[in-house]
């Protein structure tokens, strides 16, 4: 009986060594461990960003809308923005509705009386910015223009400008800076 017990222990030991050789300890640990779970998470928040606008002093620069050169301001002068030249290019998270507004500029108290200033004097040139090509809706700091995004493709908003007829305008370059704000 003692011999049979020794045989039994030797057989069990050989079987254990064969199993250990075939399945190294690292794989045994994985096989013997109970399955566990982990949670994977990410939040997508609604947002918008200007596209390809160089940043200067933490402000995106969308370019200069140019009315061109005229020898007098006796008749209306119109201009349309273009990408990199005053057009507003941006993208938003799908499902977001963005509102784009513009302030009165540096030299006017209200959007109804925007003015550019002569670079060397204190003379001004009146102008206006519009949301529509027929120039009947002023681009203001409250209502502005809204756009709903169904995907995240780049959208371009054209700015329509007009200088009304003016007299006594001195020759030179006139400029203004308008702040464009996107809210969502």
Automatic annotation (TrEMBL):
SMART domains hit by this protein: SCPU (SM00972)
One Pfam short name: SCPU
Residues forming the Spore coat protein U/FanG domain are: 37-181
InterPro entries from the UniProt entry: Spore_coat_component, Spore_coat_U/FanG
Protein name per UniProt: SCPU domain-containing protein
């Amino acid at each position: 009986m003692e011999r049979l017990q020794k045989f039994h222990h030797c057989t069990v030991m050989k079987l254990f060594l064969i199993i250990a050789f075939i399945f190294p300890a690292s794989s045994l640990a994985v096989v013997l461990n109970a399955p566990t779970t982990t949670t994977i998470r990410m939040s997508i928040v609604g947002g918008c960003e200007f596209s390809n606008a160089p940043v200067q002093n933490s402000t995106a620069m969308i370019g200069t809308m140019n009315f061109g050169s005229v020898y007098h301001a006796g008749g209306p002068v119109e201009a349309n923005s273009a990408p990199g030249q005053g057009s507003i290019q941006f993208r938003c998270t799908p499902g977001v509705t963005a509102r784009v507004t513009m302030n009165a500029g540096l030299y006017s108290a209200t959007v109804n009386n925007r003015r550019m200033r002569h670079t060397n004097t204190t003379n001004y040139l009146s102008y206006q910015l519009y949301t529509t090509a027929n120039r009947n809706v002023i681009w203001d700091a409250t209502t502005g223009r809204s756009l709903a995004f169904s995907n995240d493709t780049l959208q371009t908003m054209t700015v329509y400008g007009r200088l009304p007829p003016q007299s006594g305008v001195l020759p030179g370059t006139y400029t203004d800076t308008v702040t464009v704000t996107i809210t969502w």
